[in-house]
Amino acid sequence: MQSEQLVQVVIAALEDMKATDITSIDVRDKTSITDFMVIASGSSSRHVKSLADTVLEKVKAQGVKPIGSEGLDSGEWGLLDLGNVVVHVMQPATRQFYDLERLWQGAEQSRAQHADE
User: Fold this and answer.
1) Of 15, 40, 45, 99, which is most buried with the most CB atoms under 10 A?
2) Alpha helices in the chain (DSSP H)
3) What is the pLDDT of residues 39-82, one digit of tens each?
C-alpha cells in the first residue's frame, strides 16, 4: 500500500471514531524514518486507546503489518508505527505539551477535512 493511501485509511479510521484536530504532515524531505506523521486528539485516555485500536484494526484489514506501538498503557499518548506512516494519538494537553506540529514546522502540513455533525 502506498504511503498516501495508508494515510487516508488512518484518517478515515480516526474520523469514524470521532478523533479531533486530525493533522497529516508530509516529512519525506525532513527525515528518513517515515513518510508521513498523522496526529490526532482524543478526549480521554479511553478514547485515545480506542482510536489507536481502531486504526490498528483498519490497517491490518488492509494487509498492513504494524511495526509496533508505544504509550497506550497510560492513554495520554499513543504512537503507532506503520512503517511509512507514524500515528500519534494524544489527549489535548499532552498534544499541546509536545507540540509535534511545531517540531516538524516547515514540513508540508494538511488538516483532514471532515464535517461537524
Assistant:
1) 40
2) 3-16, 45-61, 92-98, 100-103
3) 999 999 999 999 999 999 999 999 999 999 998 888 889 999 99
CA separation for the pair 107, 23 (Å, rounded): 12
CA atoms within 13 Å, Cβ hemisphere of 81: 8
Cα(57)–Cα(5) distance, integer angstroms: 16
> Could you give the strand order of the β-sheet that contains 36-41, starting from the edge strand earlier in sequence?
68-70, 77-81, 85-90, 36-41, 20-26, 108-111
Domains of the chain: 3-111 (3.30.460.10)
Contacts of 17 (CB under 8 A, 6+ apart): 47, 50, 51, 54
Residue 84 is given by DSSP the state S
Q: Do strands 36-41 and 85-90 pair parallel, antiparallel, or not at all (unpaired)?
A: parallel
